[in-house]
Specification:
Its EC number is 3.-.-.-. The chain is an alpha+beta fold. About 30% of the residues lie in helices and about 15% in strands. It has one domain: Beta-lactamase (3-Layer(aba) Sandwich). The strands form 4 sheets. The chain has a 7-stranded antiparallel sheet, sandwiched between helices. A 5-stranded antiparallel sheet has the order 1-2-10-11-7. Strand 12 and strand 13 form a beta hairpin. Helix 5 packs across helix 10. About 50% of the residues are buried.
């Protein structure tokens, strides 16, 4: 069945006129990058982040996601002077522009209020029309695409994941998990991580993240990798929050399985053509056409901010069309008891005890604010506060991923400060 699904996907993506088009790596760009020592094998290392985050899609196969006819115009900036705000770092308090640009290695900051532009800042050559790798912010887009299928009655979140991916019935881990538990990162899978990494490299190898897979030819799909995973012995399925990218890839495969189309096409049709984006995006994939649903989206900062604006606007775009199901957002903001209890068993609860992870998004309660967040490993952060209508998007290119210092500065100081300032603007 695995090979037939891939064949169907390839048959669809190769016909570029029908939907999102599929492309190989940018060979001219690869040659240029290799001349200065950046290759397909090392482009994603932290030390190269400030060089490659704006060009990540060029290193891999990728889809082009076309925007729709409707564009949500943000208007002219009303203005927010970062030099009049401040945040704390190791060596004391600094102006907010210094913290964001120099201390957090952010390359963009976009702030909206009620769908209108408050202000925007770009660094390191980034511009309004430049795409930037969003890394795990992609997870939220994959989940929201799935949510539209749930609303149509095509997917039951409480069903075993094997209902849609029967190949996982032999998996010691996934065989016992529901779709909802997978979406909440509560699947109970055990990942044997490489030193200094939080993932098993076999997953990125089968995704052709660093060139075409030659070391594990027996793995033709991320589903092959997922079926090999063991279950954790210290917790029961559904009990603990454990952030693992392969969970998201299974959600992306469910989208493909129930629709008969690649994730990229469904994401384009259900989100990219409806939200009101102003630019096309790129979604990275392997050579067989399997999109990287956990971290492959390359989009402009303004467009990611537009996506969060839809979320905090009850799922509607600014033309009044329901894009993301309202029930999905209401349930997210309420949080389930299971998701809240599971969060407390994860490491992030040490910094944010009053938060939870549900359906591939985070909800934080801190310093009088309740906000939803999309989060990426190199400092990509998008937050939206429903009570004030404020959206903040930052595109990081941080060398050290998930560092305690940068995460703490961002979520405990910078975000609350910007939310207060933007709400008053």
């Amino acid at each position: 069945m695995k090979k037939s699904i891939i064949a169907v996907m390839l048959g669809l993506v190769c016909v570029g006129a029908q939907a999102s088009s599929f492309h190989g790596p940018d060979k001219a760009f690869l040659a240029q990058a290799e001349a200065v020592g950046v290759t397909q094998q090392n482009w994603d290392s932290g030390k190269n982040a400030k060089l490659t985050m704006q060009h990540a899609w060029r290193f891999t196969h990728h889809y082009v996601l076309e925007k729709g006819e409707y564009v949500h115009h943000l208007g002219e900036a009303s203005g927010l002077d970062l030099t009049k705000l401040a945040a704390l770092d190791v060596d004391g308090v600094h102006p907010m522009d210094v913290i964001i640009r120099d201390r957090l290695n952010q390359e963009a900051l976009v702030i909206l209020k009620d769908g209108k532009l408050v202000d925007e800042y770009y660094f390191n050559g980034l511009s309004q029309s430049s795409t930037h790798l969003q890394m795990s912010v992609t997870k939220s887009f994959t989940s929201m695409t799935l949510a539209t299928l749930v609303a149509e009655g095509k997917v039951d979140m409480n069903a075993p994941i094997t209902t849609y991916l029967p190949e996982l019935k032999s998996s010691p881990a996934f065989a016992n998990a529901t779709v909802q538990q997978v979406a909440d990162m509560r699947s109970g899978i055990k990942i044997e991580a490489e030193p200094d990494k939080s993932w098993d490299e076999r997953m990125t190898i089968v995704q052709d993240w660093n060139g075409v897979n030659t070391t594990h030819p027996e793995l033709e799909s991320v589903l092959d990798f997922a079926s090999l995973l063991n279950a954790r012995s210290d917790v029961a399925t559904g009990e603990a929050y454990d952030y693992q990218c392969i969970n998201t890839e299974m959600l992306g495969l469910i989208v493909s399985r129930v629709t008969g189309r690649p994730l990229a096409e469904e994401l384009e049709a259900r989100l990219w053509k409806k939200v009101g984006f102003e630019q096309d995006a790129k979604l990275m994939a392997n050579a067989k056409g399997e999109a990287v649903g956990s971290g492959g989206l390359n989009a402009t900062p303004r467009d990611v901010a537009r996506m969060m604006d839809v979320v905090i606007n009850g799922g509607k775009n600014r033309a009044g069309e329901q894009v993301v199901p309202k029930a999905f957002i209401d349930n997210l903001l309420a949080g389930t008891q299971e998701a809240k209890a599971a969060w407390k068993l994860g490491p992030e609860s040490q910094l944010a005890p009053n938060a939870w992870y549900q359906d591939q998004l985070r909800v934080f309660n801190h310093d009088g604010h309740t906000f939803i967040a999309f989060v990426g490993i190199h400092g990509q952060v998008t937050v939206g506060e429903p009570a004030t209508g404020v959206v903040i998007h930052m595109n990081g290119a941080q060398e050290q991923t998930q560092a305690t210092r940068t995460v703490a500065i961002t979520f405990l100081d910078v975000i609350p400060t910007l939310l207060k300032a933007a709400a008053r603007s």
